[in-house]
Automatic annotation (TrEMBL):
It is found in: Mitochondrion membrane. This is ATP synthase membrane subunit f. Keywords: ATP synthesis, CF(0), Hydrogen ion transport, Ion transport, Membrane, Mitochondrion, Transmembrane, Transmembrane helix, Transport. The gene is atp5mf. GO terms for cellular component: mitochondrial membrane; proton-transporting ATP synthase complex. The chain crosses the membrane at residues 54-73. The keyword Transcription does not apply. GO terms for molecular function: proton-transporting ATP synthase activity, rotational mechanism. Belongs to the ATPase F chain family. It holds the Pfam family WRW.
Amino acid sequence: PNDVPVVEKRLMDVKLGELGSWLGGRDFTPNGIISAVRRGHDRYYNKYINVKKGGIGGVAMLLVGYVALSYLWEYDHIKHDRWRKYH
């Protein structure tokens, strides 16, 4: 009844012990990565942006993610500026 091959499962359905074989079945070629990003974008757009009664939630989520990622990328620079003396 529940004999779905590990490769065909979604990431949230994979057990921790099956993670290696699941990752081995992914397509890491440039075309595979591009198609995975495109599928992710399409799912996000259809779930949060392209809805009948949409609000600012989907765009705000994207903006918060961008701000958090930018902060993580610049954290070393921000950390060094914190301890610098200005005199």
